[in-house]
Every structure is written in structure tokens, then in C-alpha cells.
Amino acid sequence: MERTLLIIKPDATERNLIGHIVYRLERAGFRVVNMRMEQLTEVRAREFYAVHEGKPFLDSLVSFMVSGPVVPMELERENAISSLRELIGATNPKDAACGTIRQEIARDIEKNSVHASDSPENAKKEIAFFFE
Ligand code: CDP
Ligand code: MG
């Protein structure tokens, strides 16, 4: 069993898609072990995305992430990290495979509805960021 972090982003909470996303995760065999709603501050959003410091999209991404509430959740499953990345699909919904969450509901490359940890180290850090 492995744990990972998913965040429902503001474009999805705004469109009342929390339940739909949780349903898709549970249907794919993920168990929700921790979940809450949070309004991120700019400071916390920048800290979360510190790895993207210097990237041209960072300022816009931070504004988007504080534009409404987010729902971080800790998920458990076998191979949770890689299977969740597969289930959410590519960053740009135009490139996301058929049947992925981003292909289904994301609006564009920025407002792409969900975040998922990309490695065991980042999963550990990101779970601690929201739940410790
Ligand atoms: O979320 P993911 O790991 O798929 O992508 P990332 O490369 O780690 O980028 C983090 C987030 O920044 C993305 O999910 C998008 O919301 C945003 N982004 C963007 O607005 N424009 C880009 N060219 C790349 C990423
Ligand atoms: Mg990433």
C-alpha cells in the first residue's frame, strides 16, 4: 500500500465537481484517508509550488490557486503515486488520454482541475504540507 496527495483545484470546486472527482477516485480503487477544504493564501500556494520558482507560469498559477477553495486529500492504494498520475492524465487536457480526469473535466493547461504528487519524496512532503 502506498499513499499520495491529490488536490481538487479551484476551477473544479467552483463547478461543483468535488463529489464527481471523489467518485472517480473511489471507483478506481483509491481509499480517502484524509480530506478537507482550504482557502490557500498566496504565501502557502507559493510554498507548495516552490519547485516551479522562476517558471513563467508561476504567478498566474498562484493567483489561480488562491481564487477559490481547494480540497487536498490523502489517498491510499497499491502503486498509488503512479496510478493516480495515470488516472489524472497529462498536464494539458488537450494531451490527456481518453478517460482521464483531466481529459474529462479540465478547462485548460492551468485550470486543469487536479494536482497529484509525482514521486514518493514529493508525496511524503505534500501530505505533510496539508495534514501534519
Ligand atoms: O500538475 P502537473 O504535475 O501535471 O504539472 P506541472 O508541470 O508540475 O505544473 C504544475 C501546474 O502548473 C499544472 O498542473 C498547471 O496547473 C500549471 N501549469 C501552467 O499553468 N502552465 C504550464 N505551461 C505548465 C503548468
Ligand atoms: Mg507537478
Write structural notes for this entry:
With 132 residues, this protein is of the alpha+beta class. It has one domain (2-37, 71-131): Nucleoside diphosphate kinase-like domain (Alpha-Beta Plaits), CATH 3.30.70.141. Helix content is 42%, strand content 17%. It contains 7 helices and 4 strands. The chain has helices at 10-14, 18-27, 42-48, 58-65, 80-88, 101-105, 120-131, and strands spanning 2-8, 31-35, 71-77, 114-116. The chain has a 4-stranded antiparallel beta sheet with strand order 2-3-1-4, with helices on both faces. The two termini are 20 Å apart. It binds cytidine-5'-diphosphate and magnesium ion (MG). Cytidine-5'-diphosphate is lined by residues 57, 61, 91, 109-110, 112, 115, 118.
